[in-house]
Amino acid sequence: MTQPYIRFDKVTKAYGDFIVVEDLYLDIAKGEFVSLLGPSGSGKTTILMMLAGFEPPTRGAVIVDEKRIDQLPPHRRNMGVVFQSYALFPHMTVADNVAFPLEMRGVPKANRKQLVDRALDMVQLGTMADRKPSQLSGGQQQRVALARALVFEPAVVLMDEPLGALDKQLREQMQLDIRDLHKRLGLTIIFVTHDQSEALTMSDRIAVFNKGRIEQIGTPNEIYDHPTTRFVADFIGETNLLDGAIETSDANGLIVALPGNKRIRVAAGSGEATGAAVTVSLRPEKIRLNSDAGSENSLPVTILDSVYHGDHLRMVLDAQGTRLIAKADRRFGDLQPGSKAIASFDAADCWLVRS
Amino acid sequence: MSMLRVLKIVFAVAAMTFLLAPLVAILPLAFTSSVFLNYPVPGYSTRWFAELFTADVWRRAIINSLVIGLGVTVLATVLGTLAAVGLRERRLPFSGVLRTAFLLPMVVPAVVLGVGMQLLFVRMGLANSYLGVIFAHSVIAVPFVFVNVSAALQGVDTRVERAAASLGASPITTFRRVTLPLATPGIVSGAVFAFATSLDEVILTLFVAGPNQRTLARQMFSTIRENISPAIAAAAFLFIVGTILAATIVMLVRWKSAQRRAA
């Protein structure tokens, strides 16, 4: 990464004895779209609030553009914040809401109107300027909040689960809209969400949080395909977590012994000692169902359940005591619960994660 | 119709009668042509209203009530609002204790307050002055403003204020442009309550007011002892009309703000 634009340097936030964020190091480049992803209570919103200036860090430094800002009050930070609840001013019209940050910056009235019109056009709400927020739908309110956070061209835009209250279709539309704005305006966006698919579709990088710490940070691809910990593998998408022990290792990877005298080959992973307890993550869509046994990584299974999901079948398999979830092609629809099959998968799709 | 339902209606009617009967009883007497405050009413006239607005004592009492009432409204609304705003910050030490302290004048017997105030005001040179009466009434009016404004502030979404801060508004600007407008309905109803409290107050007025600060309520109180004139009923009529007006204002303000908030 080039010179980081935003840096959290060993930041801790505690309320009394309760530690919300612990020793956080996080660098974000200018123009980057970074998602903070995690379950509720993992500290991600607190990080956003520290960046916006609403929560002072207990220890450590928050640095933006090479300046420490953790003592700066919120109104002097020049960051656009979009809240989950939209937080529009209910007593002002849409246009006055969007004009508010310009007014605070002493932009002359004539220019203000022009900038407000442009911002509202950008979110396709040009015709709603004279309405009150209460006269708009949730999606429209959210777009007003977005226009208001962008109209003064802030250095950084912070979004705290901005799409959480919208229905699925609108949410997906807004995801594309926000991504598009990010690219077009070259914005630096920090996006807090607990929705992993949202993080995967929108971000340049994702930081996965658990209990106030970063579990893993990387591109959506790295996070999804190469989770480093059990938590990340489980939180991002669906996965099968198989506990076992390393039996042997060679140049092609290693062999992991699973309970019930099963062996699987894992392509990557070196430096692990023979006999060490490991967990293997195997994505359901990587499991193939066949009728005849292959050489390596094929397990005889009994089908326990098969649920129709439209574009695929979600199957629950029993591999001699090990439960597996598989996403199977629809052509396996005639495999009824109770029938036998062979589940096979590539060694490259088996991934070692830390507990 | 079930038995319970009948009982409920009977009870509701009984309760309302109990509350409203005295008002209904006094109202016709305001329009009596007789010089006595009693039934039956021999004929109807507006002579007692004329008396109210022409007789010097009554006219002065009405003007005094309005002057003092307005003074109390301004003073109590400003103080009560400031207190509510200050105590909104929950992290303030002793905020719970302070909160209770602000509500104390509501429960302390007015007689006790009155004695104390009289002693104090004599020393301070405030006895028998308009300012003294305004201060005295404000003490018991502040809690009403405090309660109303506190409730209104509780309804203001702190995230909206944070949004204002993030958009570049200093704390003072945020308060002026966002918090205050959103709390206005509470401030208005607090002000109406403050005015009504001052209008109604007799006991403190008896202790701290001189002959020049006779308010309408106090004038009624002394008239009823000296000569039971139907002018009292006419004054009561004015009170009731005034109260209904005030209540209407409060309801209108609440209704408008509820309409604005409805998403």
From TrEMBL, chain A:
Q: Which residues form the ABC transporter domain?
A: 6-236
Q: What is its EC number?
A: 7.6.2.11
The catalytic activity, as recorded, is: ATP + H2O + polyamine-[polyamine-binding protein]Side 1 = ADP + phosphate + polyamineSide 2 + [polyamine-binding protein]Side 1
**UniProt xrefs under CDD domains:** ABC_PotA_N (cd03300)
Pfam families reported for this sequence:
ABC_tran (PF00005), TOBE_2 (PF08402)
Q: Which domain of life does the UniProt lineage start with?
A: Bacteria
Name the UniProt key words of this record, in alphabetical order.
ATP-binding, Cell membrane, Membrane, Nucleotide-binding, Translocase, Transport
Can you provide one Gene Ontology molecular function annotated for this UniProt record?
A: ATP binding
* First-level EC class: translocase
Membrane-spanning ranges: none
Name the family the entry cites: Belongs to the ABC transporter superfamily. Spermidine/putrescine importer (TC 3.A.1.11.1) family.
Q: Which PANTHER family match?
A: SPERMIDINE/PUTRESCINE IMPORT ATP-BINDING PROTEIN POTA, SPERMIDINE_PUTRESCINE IMPORT ATP-BINDING PROTEIN POTA
Q: How does it assemble?
A: The complex is composed of two ATP-binding proteins (PotA), two transmembrane proteins (PotB and PotC) and a solute-binding protein (PotD).
**Role:** Part of the ABC transporter complex PotABCD involved in spermidine/putrescine import. Responsible for energy coupling to the transport system.
For this entry, the protein name equals Spermidine/putrescine import ATP-binding protein PotA
Q: Which gene encodes it?
A: potA
Automatic annotation (TrEMBL), chain B:
Where, subcellularly, is it found?
Answer: Cell inner membrane; Cell membrane
> Which InterPro entries does its entry note?
MetI-like (IPR000515), MetI-like_sf (IPR035906)
- Pfam families xrefs: BPD_transp_1
Q: Where are the transmembrane segments?
A: 61-85, 97-121, 133-153, 186-208, 228-253
Q: Keywords assigned by UniProt?
A: Cell inner membrane, Cell membrane, Membrane, Transmembrane, Transmembrane helix, Transport
Its primary localisation, in coarse terms, equals: membrane
**Cited CDD domains:** TM_PBP2
Which PANTHER family does the annotation name?
Answer: INNER MEMBRANE ABC TRANSPORTER PERMEASE PROTEIN YDCV
For this entry, the protein name equals ABC transporter permease
